[in-house]
Amino acid sequence: MSQSIPFVEYLALGDSPHLVANECTACGARFFDRRNACANCFATGFRKVDIATEGEVRAFTIVSLAAPGIPVPFVSATVDCAGTSVRANLINVDPTPEAVHVGMKVRLALQPVGADGSGVEAVNFGFEPQR
Amino acid sequence: MASDDVWILGITMTKFGKHPTKDVIDLAAEATMGALADAGVTMREMGLLAFGSLMGRASGQMLQKQVGQTGIPVYNVSNACATGATALRVCHMAIRAGDADFGLAVGVEKLAGAGLLAGGSRGGDSENWTPTGRFGAVGPIDGRIGTETMPGVFAQIGLEYGHKYGGTSFELFAKISEKNHAHSTLNPLAAYSKRFSLEQIMNDVMIAYPNTRPMCSANCDGAAAAVLVSDAKLKTLSLEQQRRAVKISASVLTTDPWEEACQVLPNVNTLTRQAATQAYEKAGIGPEDLDLVELHDCFATAELVHYDNLKLCEEGGAVDFFNSGATWRDGKTPVNVSGGLESKGHPIAATGIANVWEVATHLRGEAGDRQLPNARVGLAHVIGLGNACGVHILERAAA
């Protein structure tokens, strides 16, 4: 079994993959990036919280023109995971307006990105339709 | 008795489009000298210069070296697509503060043929996966975790509005673009002034669903400049200068307050609503009083949400408002009679002054074939992603 690494630090791999946010201990605002302070209340205390793996598509687009090297078309979406918004690609779905719609129920899924020079596999996340 | 009002004394925009033989300073100089001539003053009277050129390596000092070095302070400003509005705002503040009687605001860009501005290129993966940056990402995230392209971001913003309130469709967004392209046929300074049928728009190249190519703002070259003056100084100028002066009844700049999701998908709504609210209050003018609006239709999907954000309609009512025909040039609240960014073009730093020029030109009754009859009050709006929002409310001189 080759070694693997999450594509971003806020993705937790393992038996039940999920996203992890930095939650402000003062006001509850959630962020996925490394923080200096809370953008909402300026407090500096944060705790790690697990984000729901099921959600609803609140907005999407099907990108047909992107930078060289990015496979198109692909679906970019904003997914509402039980009140926390997540930016992600929609995967395992046809990138067509017939197959994707706002309000659709989706769940977190993993997608390999590839191995680096020493054989370490990077694993990314996306959201796929709930079946 | 002079008030603390600030006026536009002179304003101009260059033809937007392709200017292969001119550099950014040529374009900025053309707009600057045009605005000074329009104002009937010279560089000698200017108390400050606020200059914006987002993508070029130009500065206000480089412009001064071509049009007049008088030792005045230069403020080189950068605020994404709100850069031009920010330059205006800087002059407005300096005059209000009593620091200057006259201010010159200039925005310029050379972007013809530029392609995607954000998300147009992406770095390669490194030899060894190493977490870097604020997300601890082991490689570039554009295209892997959503999109960074502007057509894609604003497509989502439009569809999000549809999800919240209903009524949107690919065809609806294309109809907004159809309107703006139709308006552009009367604007000789627009980069593109060709009418498109709804079918042509919908069948054109898809960029980011539902935005096809004609539904995206056009990259182009162009500049715009404005001379602002204090009320006290204006009263000492000629009656003709006073007659053509346009009052800045509100000049507002905002950023987006934190709200859930705003760091995931840029929220262009909160800061536009706040800017509009502040501007209407300062001006003592309501959205129902507006004779025309130039708003930031960087994409057809964006225009829809700003009908709502600028309170041109009831909250949630943007689709019905558009379908009523209100925003066509013969409607209740004409929006983007210039053709908007989709056809007039979007030389980024020039846009926030060029849309003020469009409004001012109607208020002066000098808009030629596209003149809106009896235009007295207008609003100009820009959004810079990141985010910054500029709103200016303008009124015709009373005389």
TrEMBL record, chain A:
InterPro entries: ChsH2_C (IPR002878), ChsH2_Znr (IPR022002), NA-bd_OB-fold (IPR012340), Thioester_dehydratase-like (IPR052513). Residues 49-110 form the ChsH2 C-terminal OB-fold domain. It holds the Pfam family zf-ChsH2. Residues 14-46 form the ChsH2 rubredoxin-like zinc ribbon domain. This is DUF35 domain-containing protein.
From TrEMBL, chain B:
Residues 6-112 form the Thiolase N-terminal domain. Pfam families: Thiolase_C_1, Thiolase_N. Residues 270-395 form the Thiolase C-terminal domain. Gene3D superfamilies: 3.40.47.10. GO terms for molecular function: acyltransferase activity, transferring groups other than amino-acyl groups. InterPro entries: Thiolase (IPR002155), Thiolase-like (IPR016039), Thiolase_C_2 (IPR055140), Thiolase_N (IPR020616). It comes from the Bacteria. This is Thiolase. It comes from Pseudofrankia asymbiotica. The lineage of its organism: Bacteria, Bacillati, Actinomycetota, Actinomycetes, Frankiales.
